[in-house]
Amino acid sequence: METKKSDIEVGKRIGGGRFSDVYMCRTLGHMNPSSSEYALKITEPEDELPPHNVKNELRLLRKLADAQDREDKENDTSLGKNVVRLIAFYQSPIEIGLVFPFYKSDLNGVIANNTKVRSAFNLQDGTITRKRENNFSSSQIIQIFKGLLRGLAFIHSQGVIHRDINPNNIMFESPHELEPVIIDFGISYMNPDNNGLEKPDSKITDIATGYYKAPELLLSVKNYSNKVDIWSVGVILMLISSKDFTTPYSQDSAHSDLALLASIFNTFGSPPDDWQEVKTSRSYSAMNTAFFRKIRKSSDDLLFKLKDLPQCVQTFNEMMVYESSCRLSASEALKRIDSDRLQNQ
Ligand SMILES: Nc1ncnc2c1ncn2[C@@H]1O[C@H](COP(=O)(O)OP(=O)(O)OP(=O)(O)O)[C@@H](O)[C@H]1O
Predict the structure, then answer these.
(1) pTM score over 0.90
(2) Smallest Cα–Cα separation from 330: which of 143, 154, 182?
(3) Which member of 90, 216, 306, 322 lies 3.0 to 4.6 Å from 271 by CB, making a disulfide possible if both were Cys?
(4) Residue 342 above 50 pLDDT?
């Protein structure tokens, strides 16, 4: 799997984050000839700040790729297909390059492709307003939801917490193909201590992106678990099941932890008095009384497009609970949905 940079023909830049650049690429030499388009993610370890760590990302991707190879050999009903597979990598004194299959769209692109825009004429002031409408069918939403749960079940079975599940890190072969693939393990955590970088009870809490952060992270719970990923998938489910591809959260919540916590309480109701994992959180005891008691919004509103699928709504309800040890795991959630034979609806 290790290769040389000279084996790779680098094309145009297609993306990147704070510490990396992603390019289209073609591979020369011995690499898999079945597909001609790949994505190459280049990171300079010297530039990175924790929790970003490309050396750790590489270690972790190699472990996942080994497990994906084993699944292939065993002809297992593959969970690994919903997780990006490392095809090759190179290391030089200044950079690490990771080669992946190329995906044409992320979840934002798929959402754009399934958005209907309606124009409404306002008789009173003569203006025209344009309204976005979610055009997904319930079975399409469930296909994406199940794919994400399968991907998480695979990642978690390997002792890995992704830590940044959000629409930018969910890719698809094309905007029309609804089998999701989870990418970007740049800030992921591998049990038991993230290769010596973070002890299990003092993990970095500045992880995940905006709306997709789990509530315990906002209260600085450092011994959190893979259930932070379950919460993120629940927020994604709210987004893709909404009337108009919005979440019930305030806009400020994307940038402010305090606003996000307020939005979470407004949406899922006030947390229970016996929320064990935040018992010792100083910020929680200081703020608890500062919030009015809130009632959990109806799941019919939160999952507008799935409201006629009670098993799915119930699964969501059991994923979105404050006490993270009580949240459903990915494999439990999958079993619940499969048992409802939703795929036939
Ligand atoms: N395999 C791929 N196929 C197509 N595009 C990709 C692929 N991998 C990454 N990208 C694009 O590059 C972007 C950045 O990739 P990635 O998230 O892995 O890097 P990052 O540095 O961790 O980014 P961030 O800091 O935003 O999390 C992705 O959001 C996506 O748009």
Answers:
(1) yes
(2) 154
(3) 322
(4) no
ipTM of the complex: 0.96
pLDDT digits (tens, 9 = 90+) for 143-202: 999 999 999 999 999 999 999 999 999 999 988 889 999 999 999 999 999 999 999 999
Mean pLDDT, to the nearest integer, of 81-95? Answer: 95
Burial code (b: 16+ CB inside 10 Å, e: under 16) for 246-269 equals ebbbeeebeeebeebbbbbbbbbe
Q: Which helix (H) or strand (E) holds 56?
A: helix 54-73
Mutation choice for ligand 1 from 19, 22, 37, 98, CB with most ligand atoms inside 8 A: 22
213 in a labelled binding site: no
Residue 227 · residue 327 · CB < 8 Å: yes
In the chain, what are the domains?
A: 5-102 (3.30.200.20), 133-343 (1.10.510.10)
Which residues form the pocket of ligand 1, taking CB atoms under 6 Å from any ligand atom?
A: 14-20, 22, 39, 41, 84, 100-103, 106, 164, 168-169, 171, 183-184, 186
Ligand 1 centroid distance, CA of 209 (Å): 14
What is the SS3 assignment for 284? helix
Q: Please report which confidence band the pLDDT of residue 328 belongs to, taking 50, 70 and 90 as the band edges.
A: very high
